[in-house]
């Protein structure tokens, strides 16, 4: 019921929607030129998935050994599973590097790195990247890392992060990248859960002109990880760094002595390539496991089609490699396609609000892939920041991470795309490995705010609570009814979670998002329907923030919900009750905020801490989050059904307090 009203609300907001056709010039040169071409490819991918994916796999990747079966899965049983290309062998780093070395791509820029300080730029040709990755692979081997071992990478946006990922892939080690904005405690949890024995970090990092103490954070995390034998440290900034003898080693020292020759390991298609942690409804994030063959094929193919990739494109994905978008569309997708991928260490607003446009102009960026939160932030600062720059090299724009409102879409389209560049809205998730629903540029008409149509092989459906399919324009739960090659293989060390979280409804993969499909078959994503908040395109589990809050001595109870936020999309609103005798003041509020930042990281900073005497509960003692969400959003007129509450006066108090807080 609740997301139905939300869907209706969003639909109403978008009444001013228009359908925008891609320009004939773009379509003419596009990989998929028309709706008809898309329909044909899509039909085939659904009607004959084995033939379709088999052909794509042969054409797209290099294999050492062919498969015994293309697609095997079971979504119905107690032990759901999915497997692509069983028995086939390949290596992801070989596909991203070695195979490009025979022809003219050898000297093409694979990775262009722009540091936060403007003057810091590095270019890695495919040849150079191959050499560095091979050396790093030998370094890891030298530290005793073997096939199947986990390596945690806690690095900022520097080339060594991509190099270390590919080095792991080369020797069959499983990388586990931890976003460099996460705290020591969050890092420790991930190191422990993954069972890694080697961690790679940097001594420091830059963020908006400030220096991040990455090695210090890592040291703190490692206090709780006795199994970690080696910590390799990249010298990002020349600055005194405390190194622990026996455990800590400089990346540069190890690389200097490493051989540039390293034979890639032959991996079975379903051997894990990486584990990436993401938030869900539980207090602890889950390690999403992706395989090698299926994932790489899906990342490579979606990259090629969704971004209509051309050989000479300069492609820029602004996401951090610490998230799935950076994995699939900054590292694996672009490199497997032999493209030029730009990696940017900075932020859109530093030193000034024109940083993105300065970078676009400097490198002649053709494709820009960013998030609605960045678009909103720039829109707020105004078009004048764009005007001083020549950004006419842009030919295609992408959006990912959260629903983009039609207003932000139109600004992106007109101010940045100058009415010329199609926008590929891309709906997908850490779990899906690659783009699932998109407005395939050049091929399909765009509707601002709609992620549009499914990618090849993807079969999304909108379901009613009773499991039947929703009618056009009727809101429901977004599920996927058959597998696709990029699909996660499981949850690391937690077989039960795969079934419980993703297959509570037998036969369907549950996305956790709400959606509706309009009369033209276009999908409109209405946001998460589980206890996940989408803050600036980052997933934050409400349970994670609550558990951080209640671990503070004076806190009795906490309930966390999302609230509307003009730039971040959603903000974090925390209701807190304190223990007897605690003095409530701004100091306590600041301490609590600091405590959450320490426990998770700055991305989980609560926007509002609402101290209250009691939380609304049902008679059976369950916190009524639906009501708390409404109060946080100040939508209190229709708080109709409070009849199940044990003490209705609690709600009145909360409403009064919220008015005072805002
Ligand atoms: C949301 C990021 C609407 C959605 C790739 C999803 C989106 C979650 C879009 C996954 C989009 C992502 N339109 N919502 N184009 N893209 N989302 O795992 O709620 O960090 O479930 O993966 O982001 O976030 P994740």
Automatic annotation (TrEMBL):
The keyword Coiled coil does not apply. Residues 106-491 form the AMP-dependent synthetase/ligase domain. It is an enzyme of class 6 (ligase). Its cofactor is Mg(2+). The modification N6-acetyllysine is found at residue 622. CDD domains: ACS. It comes from the Bacteria. Residues 38-96 form the Acetyl-coenzyme A synthetase N-terminal domain. Gene3D superfamilies: 3.30.300.30, N-terminal domain of ligase-like (3.40.50.12780). Residues 544-622 form the AMP-binding enzyme C-terminal domain. PANTHER family: ACETYL-COENZYME A SYNTHETASE (PTHR24095), ACETYL-COENZYME A SYNTHETASE 1 (PTHR24095:SF14). Catalyzes the conversion of acetate into acetyl-CoA (AcCoA), an essential intermediate at the junction of anabolic and catabolic pathways. AcsA undergoes a two-step reaction. In the first half reaction, AcsA combines acetate with ATP to form acetyl-adenylate (AcAMP) intermediate. In the second half reaction, it can then transfer the acetyl group from AcAMP to the sulfhydryl group of CoA, forming the product AcCoA. This is Acetyl-coenzyme A synthetase. It comes from Gordonibacter massiliensis. The lineage of its organism: Bacteria, Bacillati, Actinomycetota, Coriobacteriia, Eggerthellales. The gene is acs.
